[in-house]
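Subject: Sanity check before I submit

Could someone independently write out the structure tokens for this chain? I want to compare against mine line by line before I put it in a report. The sequence has 362 residues.
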Amino acid sequence: MFRVLSVLLPVVTLAAANASGATAAGLKVGVVAPVEGPLALLGRQVLEGARFQAEARGSEVVAIPETCEAGDAEALKAAVAAAAAEALVGFLCTESLEAILPTLGGTGVPAISLSVRSDVLMEDVRKNGWPFYRLVPSARKETEKLASVILEGWKGEPLALIDDGTIHGRDLVEGVRSALAETGLTPVFSDTYRPAQEQQVSLVRRLGRSGATHVLIGGDRSDVAIIARDAASETLALTLLGGEALDAADQPVPLADGVLAVTLPEAETLPEAAPTAAAMRAANLVPEGYTLPAFAAIGLLEQAKDRALKDGTPLADALEKAPYPTVLGTIRFDAGHERADNPYRLMVWRQGRFVDAPLPTE
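---
Independent answer below. Compare away.
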């Protein structure tokens, strides 16, 4: 499959090469990803995306199996050491990072995760100065985007804030509540509902009696789908907004058209990704899941190596020196090793997928 790239990739990588200003020697990257078990499909996406970009300019990908089991920490550390890579990419599980990051502190070898969201882990990263970065945004970014949607579009609307009582749902709603309180905006209704119920008619009726017309829900997709269904059965017009948890499979009730979510768009729908996605399909590679993020991570590291060689600095330092264009958009890391931008978007469920939604107007 990857031999086809000799024809396709010059078109795909031209913009990145021009943006970096030069083409440096290849980079040796260890790709830490599952190769068996329930996460093997995701691991294959990571490896395929990484290899697709790496072959464009002679970079080398070394596959390092990730089991996501804390008991395999020593084996993972040995595999990473044996790879002797200049950088590490992947890390779909927190357990893997907890094993590896302390060993990277004195090596200067940067690691980039495509999925780990743990804010506690990032606190350790900053405290210890570990060279770890992540392409996914922090939970704070999700909260900030939700608050901005409400403040910019729903300020004059009767607002309800409800959550499912889980740590994530409660923290998400409380974070938004605090942001709104700073502007003097208070909800007309607040509640914690019982999740995983077959129906939420009682909750919907309480929302109706409160006068709320716009509802922020800190809960998962299945609960939001049931709330939307029951609101429709009660002929109650509610505008429902949730977080990234809504971007999941329908189980068992399908999500109704019109439900809003602050989430990340599918990578292949981004304009920056269009040429790469087309080239991947031409090479019989489906640009889904972690395929394009892994491609982006390798390209980002290659550009950072260009910068490091030019400036005479370590690769990890170069990651923080400049914004780098990728198929996910321009990425810049802040001093806390987080993405400086906020990639979350307001999206709406239409005909089986989330698409960009216009910001609600007052």
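---
OP: Matches mine. For the report I'm noting this point. The longest helix spans residues 291-311.
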